[in-house]
Amino acid sequence: MKHVVVIGNGMVGYKFCEKFVASEKFNEYKLTVFGEEPRRAYDRVHLSEYYAGKTTEDLSLSTATWYHENNIDLHTSEMITEINREEKTVANHRGVKYSYDYLVLATGSSAFVPPIPGVEKEGVFVYRTIEDLEAIEAYAKKMKSEGKTQAAVLGGGLLGLEAANAVKELGLEAHVVEFAPKLMPRQLDQGGSDMLQAKIEELGLHVHVSKQTEFIQGDKTIEGLQYIDGSALKVDMLVISAGIRPRDEVAKECGLDTGLRGGVIVDNTMKTSDDTIYAIGEVALYNNMIYGLVAPGYDMADIVVSQITGYTDKTMVEHIDMSTQLKLIGTEVASFGDAFCEGEAIDTIVYENKRKGIYKRINVSEDGSKLLGGILVGDSSDYNALFQIYNTAMALPEDPEDLILGSRGSDNSLLGDVMDLPDDAQICSCESVSKGTICSDIQDGTCNDLGDVISCTKAGTGCGGCKPMVKDLVDATLKSLGKEVKDTICEHFEYNRQELFDIIKLKGYRKFDEALDHYGNGDGCEVCKPVVASIMASIYADTANEEEVIQDSNDRFLANIQRNGTYSVVPRIPGGEITPEKLIALGEVGKKYDLYTKITGGQRVDFFGARLDQLPKIWKDLIDHGFESGHAYGKSLRTVKSCVGSTWCRYGMDESVSFAIELEERYKGLRSPHKIKGGVSGCIRECAEARCKDFGVIAVEGGWNLYVCGNGGANPKHAELLAEQIDNETVIKYLDRFLMFYIRTAAPLERTAKWLDKLDGGIEYLKQVVVDDTLELADELEAEMTTLVYNFQCEWTQAIQDEEIMKRFNHFVNSDQPDDNLVFVPLRDQKMPKLWK
Amino acid sequence: MEEILDIYKTTKVENVKVWYKAAKVIDFPKNGGACIKYQEKQIAIFNFERKNKWYACQNICPHKMEMVLSRGMLGDQNGIPKVACPMHKKTFSLENGENLNGNLEPIATYPVKIEEGNVYIGFSE
Question: Where does residue A95 fall: left (phi above 0), alpha (psi -120 to 50 degrees), or beta otherwise?
């Protein structure tokens, strides 16, 4: 078995492992990986999200067990300091040796620190690793406690702007200092750069261009930047982000050929000057260039996997595309192809809209036949289409300006039909997925929908910019195969849930049969009946007692059916706060009916093993003690979990318990497409695990941060930030809108996370609807929610007061006996059902 | 535990020896079901009002041996009347007991007749 050693566990190093694992010859090789950082490879591209609340685990590219599961030895916190090419061994900083058959250098780069006097002073940082971010965060805290707020970022490139945003996130005044006369000098022209500068200044960042720093002021600690032009900037922190330097030390030392300005020289097979050593990512010098983007790094990783496993004809393309599309500080920026085309025989078309903050430029060949490159600032929604036109050298429309102005007079999209693209058109450049791959996976039945395609090909999992185009391709291919992409509810209704919701509301139907007779066919089933019941509950504030036979079984009996056909009972304990008296009352009820008793994950008490005929008696007792239904059985709001908050906790920033109770009381009983859970944490330590909930509220300096669309369960997902630093009233306003919008538009049994996944435009679109009210729906949504809140009734209180309803709970209609089929066995001083079969 | 199932055998009208007067029509929800006890048996009876028909079957679901089918939801699959078990949504034809969405053993069905507001179930023993 050949041994492949990888030095470096960054994004490209990890991608190499992932591609290797996926190759068919993987089991003929043994992989050992060394990373000098203490953690597994993480997403450095989205590093600044660390301050927005993402954890290192969120940023991690793999699960903790991934390497082990794939039989890869991962050594973290282990730096390789020596390569012995004769012996074919590497040695770590402790002198331990490992032999290799193939060696892959994926050491990446470090932040370039320009030789400015004073960079060693306290308060000067680089921006590269999670450790750097932690150090910056700690220092920012210290500064703020001393009343200092000014921080500078040296470098106005991609990373510099990311760093500036991060500094701003920490609550500091951020100054971007750039040597060149414009921001992002490598990607943008002056016009694009000016627009970007205007937009980010609007957001509160300060930009200083054409500034060369002579030295850093201050004694031991930084106090400011002295520029060569004589002016100065008073700051108490400096983050350097002035470019990268390849980590080629260990390669240089063992005699591999390196470039004059660093980087390990490789050929188009990514081989270095040693036949058994490859270099990939930001350490590799290919075509005399270092490529600081992930996409080329991923391609390099792919090439080396092919080379090592014997597919030697797969080589790196001659010309590496450096097109990028990204979101910087809330501003869309993209550049593709030759963005500048200076001094050549070309025509440039520029569109500038200062009012809306949009700048677009395309470079067209003089004969008007080809798109050579371009720049988009403020609105990059046309990037995918433009990139395809450029990349596949498609013919341009008669008036090339239509490409950025939109065709006036017809409503054709830029590209026409996505299916007209050639098969080798690259759709996802992060993962190198072509149109042909996507379409053939659907045609041969490997994939049946967008989700399949994404998990099979990984298309759209990198920057995500290509997702709309992938979706269009999937839809168009399915359609060409005659597969209808409509997600109807079941054979009885040719509508999706949203359409049915609108129909029922518009027609004012109050009975299942009315809707079925007018808009469906057949007699209904276990799928459409509960959907209609839920829709009517959401429109008319009905309880589940309204038309019992269309309610899901749990709703019909107002309890959760469990293993042996007995039920569990969960009274509501809002926010998890309960008096000792009520807790004793719960204990008495559990004892009286001999119920198995457990504390739930939602901070309440669950009683198991109640027979159908016992349910009304148990609930009568509970209601007498002041409890009401906890709706644990319904597709409705379950709990709003809370931490103890500022009332008791020495770290608390706000009263999380009070707010959790208020939210739970507000939304209790709310019927929805699936269950809804909430959480409120009193500080960012997040003891209430609010970000694992459908809605989570976390107290921060200056208000609450509101997160939505998270869940635990089979596919855990952290909730995403919807709004920051808002007060209680605004939280409720946004939640009203968000929840009603979800209730109206989600598919049956679709949790909020999945709903958001499928929502075109994702969280940004949701923000527009909920926060900016672009659909002008806010008033309507709030009014609907208010109606539901004011008409809340406890359905168990309703049930025990109604003799008709009570009849439901007899096991037999012709006998008062209980079900004699139930058998329980003892379990740790309580009981459990006798096992099945 | 399978022997519980052995006492349930599909009964055709022509083989009925006993018409057991189980309960009143008004004891059953419209388009829903309820359970009756006959000797050792638990029988689920459904008032499928939309089809203007009554059905009866064993109350035990053969999937996990729970006495729950009477609490299931009524519906149809391509016109075949069915009940969905509340435990795991296994569906069974109410006409011949066939498991419509899996390979479970069919459930036993029984004839029902309505006379003067009373519901009768036919048994062969």
Answer: left
SS3 labels along A729-747: HHHHHHHHHHHHHHHHHCC
β-pairing, A237-240 vs A102-105, is unpaired
How many CB atoms sit inside 10 A of residue A539's CB?
20
Substitution target from A516, A556, A811, A822 for chain B, most B beta carbons within 10 A: A811
DSSP 8-state code for residue B105: P
In the prediction, which pLDDT does A823 show? 81
pLDDT value of residue A208: 95
Return the closest-CA partner of residue A53 out of A678, A710, A644, A729. Answer: A710
- pTM: predicted TM-score of the whole model, two decimal places: 0.53
- Helix locations, A432-560, DSSP H: 435-443, 450-457, 467-480, 497-507, 512-519, 528-540, 553-556
Output DSSP code: residue A177.
E
CB pairs under 8 A between A and B: 103
pLDDT score, position A419: 77
Cβ–Cβ < 8 Å for A591, A825: no
Contact B75 A553 (CB under 8 A): no
Whether chain A has a CB inside 8 Å of the CB on B74: the answer is: yes
In the sheet that holds A567-569, the strands lie side by side as A560-561, A567-569, A605-610, A596-599
Judge contact between A462 and A456, C-beta under 8 A. no
Interface of A with B (CB under 8 A): 491-492, 513, 522-526, 529-530, 548-550, 552-554, 556-557, 561, 563-565, 612, 807-808, 810-815, 817, 819, 821, 836-837
- Residue A441 and residue A155: Cα distance in Å, rounded? 44
DSSP-assigned beta bridge partners for residue A103: A5, A277
Rounded Cα distance, A455 and A745, in Å: 25
User: Do residues A245 and A290 lie in contact, with contact meaning Cβ atoms separated by under 8 Å?
Assistant: no
Residue A340, φ and ψ in degrees, nearest 5: -105, -45
Residue contact A561–B76, C-beta within 8 A: no
- In this prediction the ipTM stands at 0.90
pLDDT at A408 over 60: no
Q: Do A554 and B86 touch (CB under 8 A)?
A: yes
Q: Following CA atoms A119, A123, A124, A128 in sequence, which dihedral angle do they give, to the nearest 10 degrees? A: 160
Contacts of A612 in chain B (CB under 8 A): 71
pLDDT tens per residue, range A111-145: 999 999 999 999 999 998 888 999 999 999 999 99
Q: pLDDT band at A463, cuts 50/70/90?
A: low
In one letter, which amino acid is B118? N
**Contacting residues for A275 by C-beta, under 8 A, at least 6 apart:** none
CB contact under 8 A, B87 and A557: no
Position A150 pLDDT exceeds 60: yes
Nearest CA in chain A to B84: A526
Looking at the partner chain, which of A523, A554, A557 has a beta carbon nearest the beta carbon of B75? A523
**Average per-residue pLDDT for chain A:** 89
Compute the distance between CA of residue A561 and CA of residue B73 in angstroms, rounded to an integer.
14
User: Are the Cβ atoms of A552 and B66 closer than 8 angstroms?
Assistant: no
**Number of helices and strands in chain B (H, E):** 1, 12
Query: Tens digits of per-residue pLDDT, B82-100?
Result: 999 998 888 999 999 999 8
Residues 6+ apart with CB under 8 A from A794: A623, A628, A629, A669
Of all residues in chain B, the one with the smallest CA distance to A813 is B36
Closest CA to A6 of A130, A108, A128: A108
Q: What per-residue confidence (pLDDT) applies to A239? A: 95
What is the pLDDT, as a whole number, of residue A73? 93
Per-residue pLDDT reduced to its tens digit, A255-304:
999 998 899 999 999 999 999 999 999 999 999 999 888 889 999 999 99
Q: For residue A635, which phi and psi values (nearest 5 degrees)?
A: -80, 85
